[in-house]
Write a structure and sequence with these properties.
The complex is a heterodimer of chains A (about 425) and B (about 525). Chain A has two domains: about 260 residues, no CATH class; about 70 residues, no CATH class. In chain A, the strands form three sheets. Chain A has a two-stranded antiparallel ribbon. The radius of gyration of chain A is 23 Å and the shape is globular. The longest helix of chain A has about 40 residues. Chain A contains 15 helices and six strands. With about 425 residues, chain A is mainly alpha-helical. The N terminus of chain B is likely disordered. In chain B, the strands form six sheets. A six-stranded mixed beta sheet of chain B has the order 6-9-10-3-11-12, sandwiched between helices. In chain B, strands 18-21-22-15-23-24 form a six-stranded mixed beta sheet, with helices on both faces. Chain B has a four-stranded antiparallel beta sheet with strand order 2-1-4-5, with helices on one face. With about 525 residues, chain B is of the alpha/beta class. Chain B folds into four domains: about 170 residues, Rossmann fold, CATH 3.40.50; about 70 residues; about 160 residues, Rossmann fold (3-Layer(aba) Sandwich); about 80 residues, no CATH class. Chain B starts with 8 loop residues before the first strand and ends in a 9-residue tail after the last helix. Classes of the chains: A mainly alpha (about 425), B alpha/beta (about 525).
């Protein structure tokens, strides 16, 4: 009865008589779908606007090749954690412990390399295994005991921070060069140079553009062949050209950097594609959304909610371990205080990226853009020498405004 | 008719037009309500009844609609509910707006606290609340918490709250939709006594028998327009059929499609099914139930509120309700394991919940995803969903069930009740079950859409499935089912073939008490 659209009498033989009325309904129902699209474009637009703003404020320093490379190296942890966090939030939970887990696993990594003298690759595997175990520990309490994730991970935040301080003391430094390279080096010069540009970076960039255009065309063709509505041609073309141009510019800048394509960028790119696929195309992803959208309906549809929750937290543990590798490598040392507030960065990236606070809604691509917005803010504010305390104020306001904007938009779409 | 005179109009809404982006929800609606009468508003879902009431109460503030409202002769320009309540217009919504962990008294005076300089006078609060509770005929202590009383009593608390505001015009939106017969009857009596006190009521209801029983006039709205206002005490007797004719714009002579069943072998059998209450494991909720369904057969389960109908269905379907469950389930003659939902689906069962919004659908997701959500395995390979196939299937079901939506990408929460129910049906039809358990399949949907749902249920039976229908509406069971089981206090007390099914006959079984004394 709260329906505002007159769907009219629905008796079979009266159906024709109300075709006009339902025609109107079409418009009303098509609007929200369009709005969602606009919202997604909107957040990319916001990212571009922030980049341009800081490019101007920093007198062109923001987009200098080495800064672009380090933008990714410094913010890879947010993106990695945000990918796991968005799944946790979509399923209707939260994870406050990831920062502490990063510090704890970072400490174990350093001890494995420095005290146990394990090769760094083996140490990384140990770290990843530990991440899975920690994820299983927290998943057990959430899924099978039924303790709210907020409590479980609040406990985890204390437990793993404490363990980190216990094993690390303050700092374990002097990590092997190979390990430190993960977050500080890149694929430079493997295919030589074209002037100042790294050829491999250019090749990767061009391959990326081709892959993007190809996949977009293919999706469109599939949609067409099933008689499904597609975006208008002009909009589609604008999107293709726009994104390709952005990628091209980005590739060109990056190819001039001192390290070429950073290793972490490759890691992050692989994760984005893998998790984008997982969430968008697989039964697993569908079940995560189903749980967050309506857990009762999910149960009655045969979704094993306990197992799903357990897996979601194991996955979070896995990604936290990768974030630990990236963070420890970047610092070149394990710090007991590492990963401080990382959980908040990841959560903020999720919400800026359009994830619903109530669960059920969110996208990997969205939270990556959200993480980039946070990253550009961090970097831009640092370059212009903003007081770190003030940086926090600004980031807080951006988060608040982004979510408020989202809510107002939704309310308008609801048409009240 | 009340003695205050027929001419005195308490409320007049003139040429109300309300447009939402892209949709005209109301176009030139006119409504005249006489002082001291019970005025019913009828119309299908989406006809514009609720929108009209929102315009009246200020939810849609003055300026967002065209037209004029006169209350007690004065033009009204309400900006919010507060304004309309100030004039004595109180609306009670279908979804009750009580705070569950506050007491009855606290709820009654919420926003209108009995306080002196900000300090609440609890003696006064409880004393005043007691008086109001007596007036509405509710024998509960004022400090009882809302969670501890049933929905029927909550409805009475809402009315007490309205009375506390010196209501002159009380608007009830589907007041009996969630109530059992006894509570409904009490509520209708209360409305009668309020009328005797001179309070005017507007009642929005789908239950036409109630309207016929209580209303003095009935205004019918269709497609956002006033169709007619019927005087219920006029020369011509206003029957349910007469009202339906106005609502759907044609006479719905037969509310149930004709159906000749072709009954085959037994497809479902329940043996000695016993279920205990999960919070109180000493309480038997379903007591040694035995029942069978054959292929092509539509079997009904009738029972009063609390008889254990939904509990029976949900305990069978993956043990999603109850504890200490015992008994056997047979599908196509084979005993099957239904200990979790996945197994129940695998065994060929499907259960469409009575509460589609809470238990049936992911309201924030689109039609196609909801359509496939109980059988994703059928359209995925190695865990990867074939999205093109998913679209194709959703389209197929949209056409088959005539779901009114521009696209299967539409969000389910935006559909009308009838169309949501079609999505629920699509979802369970896609699992290709042998037995469908449909719990209140037409609750809260309008007459026309009901007819369509019945047609689909018949088609499912004709396709060789066994269908078990649970419903609180006896005419629905009698019109639809080939055989009806009556459930009372968890026991199956009767089995009635269609030919012998009358409401009186069924009610006799449904009210059969347990022989054992004391409970």
């Amino acid at each position: 009865m709260t329906q505002v659209t007159p769907t009219g009498p629905q008796a079979p033989d009266a159906a024709d008589a109300v075709a006009a009325a339902t025609g109107k309904t079409d418009i009303a129902q098509a609007v929200p779908a369009k709005k969602t699209n606009l919202r997604e474009y909107g957040i990319v637009g916001a990212l571009i606007a922030i980049v341009i703003l800081f490019q101007l404020l920093t007198g062109g320093k923001l987009l200098m090749p080495d800064n672009v490379a380090s933008l990714f190296q410094q913010n890879a942890y947010v993106m990695i954690l945000a990918i796991g966090m968005v799944m946790v939030i979509i399923a209707g939970h939260i994870d406050l412990s990831v920062g502490s887990i990063v510090a704890f696993i970072g400490g174990v990594l350093a001890i494995a390399m420095m005290n146990w003298h394990l090769p760094w690759i083996v140490a990384v595997l140990v770290g990843v295994a530990l991440g899975l175990v920690i994820g299983a520990w927290q998943g057990f309490w959430v899924a099978y005991v039924g303790v709210p994730a907020f409590i479980v991970t609040l406990a985890g935040m204390l437990i793993f921070r404490g363990l980190a301080i216990l094993i690390v003391g303050e700092t374990i430094a002097g990590l092997p060069e190979g390990f430190v390279g993960i977050s500080n080096a890149g694929l430079l010069g493997m295919l030589g140079f074209a002037g100042a540009a790294d050829v491999l970076t250019l090749v990767i960039g061009i391959a990326g553009i081709v892959a993007f255009v190809f996949s977009q065309l293919r999706t469109r063709a599939t949609m067409r062949s099933h008689n499904l509505k597609v975006e208008p041609g002009s909009m589609f073309l604008t999107k293709l050209v726009g994104v390709s141009l952005l990628l091209a510019v980005f590739t060109w800048i990056l190819s001039q950097s001192a390290i070429g394509t950073p290793y972490v960028l490759i890691l992050v790119a692989v994760l984005i594609f893998a998790y984008g696929f997982l969430m968008g195309r697989t039964v697993f992803g569908r079940h995560v959304y189903a749980i967050g959208g309506n857990v009762h309906a999910a149960v009655l549809s045969g979704v094993n909610v306990k197992t799903m929750n357990f897996r979601i937290f194991i996955n979070m543990g896995l990604l936290a371990s990768l974030a630990a590798v990236v963070t420890t490598s970047r610092a070149g040392a394990a710090l007991a205080a590492a990963g401080n507030n990382y959980e908040l960065d990841a959560i903020a990236a999720c919400f800026i990226g359009g994830t619903a606070v109530t669960g059920g809604v969110g996208k990997v691509s969205g939270v990556i853009v959200g993480a980039l917005i946070m990253g550009v803010l961090n970097m831009g504010l640092s370059i212009i020498g903003t007081n770190p305390a003030l940086q926090n104020v600004i980031k807080g306001l951006v988060l608040l405004i982004a979510v408020a904007f989202d809510l107002i938009n939704k309310r308008r779409a609801a048409g009240a | 008719m009340s003695a205050t005179g027929e001419q005195q109009i308490i409320l007049e809404m003139r040429d109300i037009t309300k447009t939402f982006p892209g949709v005209k929800a109301l176009s030139g609606v006119t409504l005249k309500v006489r002082k001291g009468e019970v005025h019913a508003i009828c119309g299908e879902n989406g006809a514009g009844k609720s929108t009209l009431m929102k315009v009246l109460s200020g939810v849609h503030p003055h300026g967002t609609y065209d037209g004029d409202i006169f209350f007690e002769g004065h033009p009204c320009q309400y900006k919010s509910i507060r304004d309309s309540e100030h004039d004595g217009i109180v609306i009670i919504h279908q979804e009750l707006a009580l705070s569950p962990y506050l007491s009855i008294a606290e709820n009654i005076f919420l926003g209108n606290e009995q306080a002196t300089r900000g300090v609440i006078n609890w003696y006064k609060t409880n004393a005043e609340a007691s008086k109001l509770l007596t007036r509405v005929g509710l024998s509960e202590l004022p400090d009882t918490k809302i969670v501890n009383i049933g929905v029927g009593k909550q409805q009475l608390v809402e009315i007490a709250k309205a009375l506390s505001k010196d209501v002159k015009l009380l608007i009830l939106d589907e007041p009996t939709a969630a109530l059992n017969d006894e509570d409904s009857a009490h509520l209708l009596n209360l409305i009668r006594s309020l009328r005797a006190e001179g309070i005017t009521c507007i009642i929005i209801s789908h239950k036409l028998n109630e309207i016929a029983a209580i209303a003095d006039s009935t205004t019918i709205i269709r497609d956002g327009m006033t169709i007619e206002t019927l005087d219920m005490h006029g020369a011509e007797k206003v029957t349910e059929e007469r009202i339906i004719r106005g609502m759907v714009g044609r006479s719905l002579d037969n509310r149930f499609p004709d159906h000749t069943p072709t009954v085959g072998d037994e497809v479902f059998r329940l043996v000695d099914w016993t279920v205990y209450h999960p919070q109180d494991p000493t309480r038997v909720v379903v007591d040694k139930a035995n029942l069978t369904v054959r292929r092509g057969e539509i079997v009904g389960i009738a029972g009063l509120m609390g008889a254990g109908r939904t509990e029976l269905a949900m305990s069978v379907f993956g043990r999603t309700w109850g504890t200490k469950i015992s008994g056997q389930v047979f599908v196509k003659g084979q005993q099957v394991d239904t200990s979790n939902v996945t197994n129940a689906i695998k065994a060929g069962l499907a259960y469409a919940s009575e509460d589609r919004k809470r238990f049936g659908l992911n309201l924030i997701d689109d039609i196609k995803h909801n359509n496939t959500s109980a059988a994703l395995g059928k359209i995925s390979r190695r865990g990867v969903v074939d999205q093109a196939e998913e679209y194709r299937i959703a389209e197929e079901y949209r056409r088959k069930l005539n779901t009114k939506t521009p696209t299967v990408d539409a969000v389910v929460g935006k559909l009308s009740g009838g169309n949501q129910q079609k999505v629920v049906l699509s979802k369970w039809m896609f699992t290709d079950p042998d037995v469908l358990i449909l719990d209140e399949p037409t609750r809260g949907i309008d007459v026309g859409a009901k007819y369509e749902i019945y047609t689909h249920i018949n088609a499912l039976a004709d396709a060789g499935k066994g269908v078990l229908v649970i419903s609180s509406e006896l005419p629905e069971l009698i019109g639809l089912c080939d055989r009806i089981y009556a459930l009372s206090q968890g026991r199956i007390t009767g089995e009635v073939p269609r030919a012998e099914a009358t409401q009186e006959h069924l009610m006799h079984f449904m009210t059969k008490e347990k022989e054992v004394a004391g409970r």
